[in-house]
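Hello again,

I reread your note about wanting to compare the complex against the isolated chains. To keep things tidy I'm splitting this into two emails, and this first one only covers the full assembly. Below are the input lines as submitted, including protein chains and any nucleic acid or small-molecule components. They are followed by the predicted structure of everything together. The single-chain runs will come separately.
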Amino acid sequence: MTGHVPSATAGTEDVVAVVVLLTELAMLRAPLLRSQVRLYAFQSLAVSVLAVVVAATRHEADVYALAGLSFALKVVIVPSVMTRLLRDVEVDLAGSAKLGVASSTLVALGVSVFGFFAVGSLHVHSALLPETTLAVASAVVLVAFVLVVLRSDVVSQAMGFFSLENGVSIASLVVAAGLPLVVETTFLFDLLVAVVAFGIIMRVHHGRSKTLSTDELDRLRG
Amino acid sequence: MGAVLVVLVVLPFLVGALSYAVPVAVSKLLAPVSGAVTFALSIALVPSVVSQGHVTAGSELRVDALSVVFLLATSFLYFATAIFSAGYLQLGRDAAGTRYGRRFYAGLNVFCWAMLAAPLVSDLALVWVAIEVTTVVSALLVAIDDTQSATEAAWKYILIASMGLGIALLATILLYYAGTSVFGAGYELSYVKMIAGAHRFPASVMRLTFVLAVLGYGTKMGLVPVHTWLPDAHSEAPSPISALLSGALLATSFYAILRYFQITAAATGSTFPRNVLLVFGLASLALGALYLLRQRDMKRMLAYSSVEHMGILAIGMSFGVTLAFVGVLLHVLAHAAAKGTAFFGAGSVVAKFGTKDMAALRGGVGALPWSGSMLVAAVLALSALPPFGLFRSEFLIVSGGLSDPRYGVAAVLVALAMVSFLGLSWSTTQTMLTAGPADLAPGPRAASGPAATGVVPTVAKGEMSPWIVVAMALGIVALLVLGVHLPADLSRLLDHAAHELGSPR
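Full-complex prediction:
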């Protein structure tokens, strides 16, 4: 209950959130799977930095711990799990996207503008918390959906889910920084478990069809 | 009674961990014992919840009448599925060996643990965590058969459900945000507190929160249009897992939606959340019923029946009268029993005939006198025929609709339920109550069968395993109890839970 958030802080938070959104757009156009994983690691780094900013400005000691955990998991563990998978399967080019780079970027821009203004139009007011960051975070979430829908390989789709989680993390840092540490830690632990499960199913898929593309996965219909 | 909650939240997990270490023969007995204990403990909670309103243990574990309804559904199915699995794993799984069995039992118990944990915890963030754990564990269980289609189903499931739960997480965060206007920056997200303070939450944020929660948890519940993973996962998973997915997992996600319903109704009045559920409910019921008419795959047919029933649950909530709420909660219990039994039966049929294709299946009851007949009974129960529990629950829901009054919606519900009755009963009688393959003259139908060579699969008469028959009999007994003579305590429990849902109007 520290009263008004200084505008400089809100500015920093917005800048980091925009960096995350831009990284998301870069992931959408990255042709190499490995570079997509690197972009994800960079995006996660930005989220961890945001956590440190929030911890410092709002004097939430818990959030420092959260920043550390988030760094360890999302910048180190998840990317290394993915990189190892890519090395083992020796596939590096992403599957054919359903749209060209320019079109998908335009779609993503349209979707993020929609998300930004849709959340903005809610007039979510709070003396405690910045509002713009929330709107950017929802744009990140929507672009993650674009990534999952338009890319047709399991790695890009998984990265889409993980970056969706990054978007939600931003939202949670700016509007719910007070969420108890236990709960935040459980969220992260949950993500870790999900990464393992995603990895197992990806390996099974590659083992069966010798590809990371999802084009083969079209037998179940109706 | 607090200790009961602790046992419920610890025991299945321990059994799951143990199952990975001990021989499969031991797990085979451990799982039914653990299922029986959790079911008995859930029943033991009923009288205290009815008399005291709620039971707590520590600050995190809490159950009220609503939670106990879902505990009963999940623990019953845990028990029945554990029994069924003992028979199921004997069927041609010897080649897969102990590794399969260990993974299967570890997964089964941990899956049930996560589904039981969701209604046991009071913190809505932890409810989310429990439901996300169910996704991860059950996706691995869907993939366990290691076939091309199982892999495809597992990938679609884990990706779509995780994306959906990402939305549900956003809803959780927004709910927390809505609460900061009342509780300050740092607090715990317990639903009790949220319902109590909700009338001071900003209404626009709560509306967004509710829509996101329905969209997010609705993905796991199988609401149209975010149901797309469901038919694949239900049809490709091993039959015990299909039973749990359909009977218990969908209900667990519905439980999360109900908690958001309570909070939103307290914040904005119940009209908004009711209308949201009406839209999703009608879409699910209509699509589920229409797909039932054209299914050839027996397990896919049951999966679409789940979509249809989830639609009925959502529509029942949209009626907004206590009578309909009682019907909805009874429907959760009866659907768990009926769908579990139906999937057990389908598992037995698939093992016997070696195919899920209903165009090729003939003479089911002749070959499987017990499990075949009980499968037919379960499907008739799913079509809401008396004397089974689903007849009573759908009757209550429709009566609630007529007293709300929303005559149009109630009429559409009845009409679409008839369509699904047609689809379900037609395919089932065609496959189960016809002459067996041995009696069939080789005709054009035989040529369209699974064996391209034109050889009709011949099967010997006899049950696959006594375990399967016992598990199915449990489900039929439960359906009859729910339909014919509801125990007094259970009836009071449903009333209490319905009042909890209906009070903040």
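For quick reference: Chain A has a mean pLDDT of 82.

B.
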